[in-house]
Design a protein that fits this description.
Length: 127
């Protein structure tokens, strides 16, 4: 079992930045795809970004490209999401997820494709 715990959310003005962390425990995440999803009130959980186990490949939803950066430090068993130029429409609960089995080079964007989840952290962007 893997336990994931997000931190770093908060209230920020539009144009500001936040860095989310996802600390894993129980097992190493070095062989897992790590991803971030977000869920705004009344909406479905949407894919934001994902990173391959080595960190060599990343994939982003179009709305965050150029503003968000996913990264990971396998030695610290932690994944990150750096969010810059935040917009009010980025307001949501952000959750990290881990996928344990996959085909190399395949991107997984469906929330039901991931095996482990954190509890989420609230990000609120004021206008």
């Amino acid at each position: 079992q893997v336990q994931l715990a997000e931190s770093g959310g908060g209230l920020v003005q539009a144009g500001g930045s936040l860095r989310l962390s996802c600390a894993a425990s129980g097992r190493t995440i070095s062989r897992y795809i790590m991803a971030w999803f977000r869920q705004a009130p009344g909406k479905e959980r949407d894919f934001v970004a994902a990173m391959s186990p080595s960190g060599g490949n990343t994939y982003y939803v179009d709305s965050v490209k150029g503003r968000f950066t996913i990264s990971r430090d396998n030695a610290k068993n932690t994944a990150y999401l750096q969010m810059n130029s935040l917009k009010p429409e980025d307001t949501a609960v952000y959750s990290c997820a881990a996928k344990t089995t996959y085909y190399s080079g395949t991107y997984y964007t469906g929330f039901n494709e991931y095996d482990y989840w954190g509890q989420g952290t609230q990000v609120t962007v004021s206008s």
